[in-house]
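Tokens in:
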């Protein structure tokens, strides 16, 4: 599966089978996490065989069932911590999809206190990602009209449209798609997250999706 196919096929999944993540799939996933940590300075961890974090009332409220594995997104406190967690967390999500796994970003409907036991001293837990073999492949989220998600003067370059189409497939908080891309002069692009909650995470996720869609186009985020 190629990366663009993973973007199109990946949907949030909240119910999982008891199939273990192991063998070559586990190795490839751990390698991707290690690479993302090296590039970002984050301390992302894959936690397996832990039934406690998604066992309480909050997880039930969120509709989660059978979650025993999750990706923990944490790092040293910084102004861009949320954005980095969103960007690199989504890299891992898409790699997981390519490996035949399913995922769901989770901000609040899990036992945060129990998840924190896996966070190193001096670091901040941002959120987690449920991961495993889903009972289903999930369903596409509803999209905001693309005209409300970008601004530009003049004609739209093809790479910008392809970036926007990919960004529209990105998971965002409550599926609200509270983001805006603005095409500026000299192929500069401004990306903004407009939501109230975890907007830095949303920003990182949609910027990665835009990059994937835009491909090798020459532009710069500002």
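Residues out:
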């Amino acid at each position: 599966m190629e990366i663009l196919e993973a973007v199109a096929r990946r949907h949030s999944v909240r119910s999982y089978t008891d199939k273990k993540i192991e063998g070559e799939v586990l190795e490839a996933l751990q390698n991707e996490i290690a690479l993302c940590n090296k590039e970002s300075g984050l301390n992302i961890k894959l936690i397996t065989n832990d039934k406690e974090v998604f066992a309480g009332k909050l997880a039930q409220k969120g509709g989660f069932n059978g979650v025993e594995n999750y990706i923990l997104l944490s790092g040293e406190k910084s102004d861009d911590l949320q954005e980095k967690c969103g960007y690199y967390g989504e890299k891992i999500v898409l790699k997981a999809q390519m490996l035949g796994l399913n995922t769901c970003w989770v901000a609040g409907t899990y036992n945060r206190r129990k998840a924190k036991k896996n966070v190193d001293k001096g670091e901040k837990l941002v959120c987690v990602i449920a991961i495993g073999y889903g009972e289903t492949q999930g369903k596409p989220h509803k999209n905001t009209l693309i005209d409300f998600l970008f601004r530009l003067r003049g004609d739209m370059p093809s790479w910008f449209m392809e970036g926007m189409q990919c960004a529209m497939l990105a998971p965002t908080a409550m599926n609200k798609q509270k983001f805006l891309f603005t095409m500026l002069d000299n192929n500069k692009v401004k990306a903004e997250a407009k939501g109230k909650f975890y907007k830095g995470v949303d920003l990182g996720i949609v910027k990665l999706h835009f990059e994937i869609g835009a491909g090798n186009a020459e532009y710069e985020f500002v």
